[in-house]
Task: inverse folding
C-alpha cells in the first residue's frame, strides 16, 4: 500500500463513512486537533525518562485513537462498530488527577507554563488538548456527536495540567506564579 493516494489533492478527505468532505470541515478540524494532541503526547513520552507517567500516557494515547475514530464516524452504523469512549474513561482520568493532586500544594494563583522539559511539554500538550476540546465543541454545535467526547477532552486537559505540575515538583523545579501586576 502506498502512502500517497492523490485523492486529497482537491482539498477533500474521506472519513469513516461514505463521501468526502473538505479538509477544513469542522469534523476534520476536530480529528486533526486530537491527532496533534496525540503527537505531542508522543514527545512527552520521550521526555519521561523516569517513566513517571508511562502507563497513563500509553493509555491516553490509545484512547485518543478511539476519540479520533468516533469523531471521524459520520454514520450511526459506522459509530456502532467502534469501541467508544465511555464514562469509565472519564472516571479513570479523574482518579489519576486525584492521585497526582495529593502530591501538590494547593494553587493560590495562576502558574506560568514551563519548568522542567517534561513539565513544559505537558503544558504544551494541555494547550493543544484545550484546542482539541474547542474544535470538538465547534463540531458539536453543527453536527451530532456525543458530548462525552467533550467531557473526556475537558478532563484530559485538567489531567495534563496536574501532570505538568507534578513532574515539575518531582524534578525539583519550582513553579513560577503569575504576578497579576507588573513586577
Result:
Amino acid at each position: 500500500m502506498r502512502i500517497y493516494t492523490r485523492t486529497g489533492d482537491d482539498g477533500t478527505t474521506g472519513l469513516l463513512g461514505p463521501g468526502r468532505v473538505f479538509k477544513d470541515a469542522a469534523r476534520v478540524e476536530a480529528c486533526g486537533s486530537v491527532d496533534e494532541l496525540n503527537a505531542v503526547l508522543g514527545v512527552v513520552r520521550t521526555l519521561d525518562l523516569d517513566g513517571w507517567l508511562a502507563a497513563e500516557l500509553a493509555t491516553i494515547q490509545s484512547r485518543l485513537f478511539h476519540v479520533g475514530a468516533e469523531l471521524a464516524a459520520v454514520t450511526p452504523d459506522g459509530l456502532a462498530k467502534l469501541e467508544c469512549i465511555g464514562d469509565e474513561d472519564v472516571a479513570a482520568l479523574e482518579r489519576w488527577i486525584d492521585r497526582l493532586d495529593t502530591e501538590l500544594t494547593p494553587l493560590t494563583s495562576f502558574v506560568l507554563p514551563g519548568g522542567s522539559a517534561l513539565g513544559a511539554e505537558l503544558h504544551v500538550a494541555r494547550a493543544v488538548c484545550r484546542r482539541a476540546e474547542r474544535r470538538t465543541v465547534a463540531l458539536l454545535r453543527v453536527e451530532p456527536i456525543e458530548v462525552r467526547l467533550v467531557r473526556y477532552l475537558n478532563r484530559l486537559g485538567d489531567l495534563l495540567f496536574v501532570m505538568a505540575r507534578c513532574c515539575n515538583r518531582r524534578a525539583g523545579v519550582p513553579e513560577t506564579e503569575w504576578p497579576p501586576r507588573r513586577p
Observations:
- Helices lie at 26-47, 54-72, 76-80, 87-101, 117-142, 147-170.
- The beta strands are 12-14, 20-22.
- The two ends are 58 Å apart (CA to CA).
- The domain at 20-104+112-170 is CATH 1.20.1200.10 (Hypothetical Protein Ta1238; Chain: A;).
